[in-house]
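Sat 14:20. Reprocessing the chain from the morning session after the first attempt stalled halfway. Input below, unchanged.
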Amino acid sequence: MSARALTCILVSRGLDGLLAVCTAHLETALAVAGVAEDSEVVIVDNASPTPYREAVWSKPGRRLIRLDRHHAFASANNLAARRYPNPYLLLLNNDVLLHRETLSGMLDLMEADPRIGICGARLLFPDGSLQHGGVVFGAGRRGPYHLDRCRPADLVPMQDREFQAVTGACLMVRHALWSALGGLDEDYAFGLEDVDLCLRARGLGWRVWCYHGADSLHFESMTPGRVRLDVGSRRLFMQRWQGRYSIDG
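Finished this time. Tokens:
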């Protein structure tokens, strides 16, 4: 097993066409990073109304897990991570199209500093504005939010930097750290389990960085009911973390 080998987890429900494009970009990025042969792409079919067909989605280097009932983002990722461990885990949304250099850059950044336990990535909306470049925290009830969200990407420097948290839409984490933390906290219905993970990692002395060397594309969530679910997750997050993070936004 390569020390750079990845388990790449994509939790998906329906949206077969989008998932196909996502996996194609992912596999190109794995090849550019030189880890395609040692890594695994794990597709978690999160109770799709029409189940993903093994004959369509399975091939060398891919795994398909079928869930017969819908799971939250945290529990679906935790299940896949337990089943297919590798030195690094990548959590990837099915609506993210990776730049071919993104995984290579993320791995290089983490290997350059063994204190970095989690690395996120620069993500753009289809209109060219920034969707994610790192998470900062506002005062009071504002809490965590994406720095420079919706700002034209060409106005945001492509410079790697440290943050308190990054989004789970494209998040690389060392497996040893993931195991120490017990994975994502399954108390979150949907949303902020990624920020919670980052804050817990920092509590153990690890660093969280965001790779800005390439622009990947994020269509953002197409999951029905997300806004409703986010309300409960945000309430839980603020109950647990308000007053415990630094105000940097």
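The first strand starts at residue 6 and ends at 12.
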